[in-house]
Write a sequence for this structure.
């Protein structure tokens, strides 16, 4: 599987349909890829009032995704960013990485003059 091409497809799908927090938590299959060796890759962009959250989740039945596998995908999914791995159980078969991007506060509307 071409990691760069699949990562570009996942990025485009996530940017096209970001999840609006806190209500829209439904993720569709366009945000998901499965490699030939069974590694599942999910990528979402979540939009909250004060932050934009980019999240990559790697999962595999029977074993934990390796650092090398995750890093290869993260370089393509999140170029120029430094994702942080979320804490998880030591024997878990899934790993989650996130990047939080603060959103600027919206400007207050102008006050009408009397």
């Amino acid at each position: 599987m071409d990691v760069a091409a699949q990562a570009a497809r996942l990025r485009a799908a996530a940017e096209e349909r970001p999840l609006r927090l806190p209500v829209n938590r439904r993720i569709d299959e366009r945000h998901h890829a499965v490699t030939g060796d069974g590694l599942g890759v999910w990528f979402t962009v979540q939009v909250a009032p004060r932050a934009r959250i980019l999240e990559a989740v790697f999962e595999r039945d029977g074993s934990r995704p390796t650092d090398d596998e995750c890093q290869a995908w993260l370089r393509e999914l999140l170029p120029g960013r430094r994702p942080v791995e979320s804490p998880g159980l030591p024997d878990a078969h899934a790993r989650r990485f996130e990047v939080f991007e603060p959103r600027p506060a919206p400007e207050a509307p102008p006050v009408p003059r009397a």
Summary: The longest strand covers residues 51-59. The beta strands are 19-20, 32-34, 40-47, 51-59, 84-85, 94-102.
